[in-house]
Amino acid sequence: MKSFRKELWFCTRGRRELVAITPDVADALRESGIREGLCLVNAMHITASVFINDNEHGLHCDFERWLERLAPEKPYSQYAHNGAEDNADAHLKRTVMGREIVVAVTDGKLDLGPWEEIFYGEFDGMRRKRALIKIIGE
Q: Would you say the pTM of this structure is higher than 0.85?
């Protein structure tokens, strides 16, 4: 069995941003040479997420509105965590959206459904962060 590891680095322009990373993950899979196995992609920061969903602008706007209703950024004083930092809402948003995804690798390709795309979700951005790609298989 082979193992492959690669990091993707991000520095978003806004505090919250969704970044489509399916092409980056597919490139890593090609680079790995693995034809059958599993591909894990996980956020390496506790205020970021990796998830699978549709790459549709309206849905992304819906995510933003929904997450803001669940865990509004402001007022900062509403959160016990906020003190030295003001990112409690980002921790909560990450918990809802998830830490990682696992995708089957079949015949050298990501085995995604017809509308599925992989996203990096940033909820406390504008600084350098990363996601890990780990592929295992043959």
A: yes
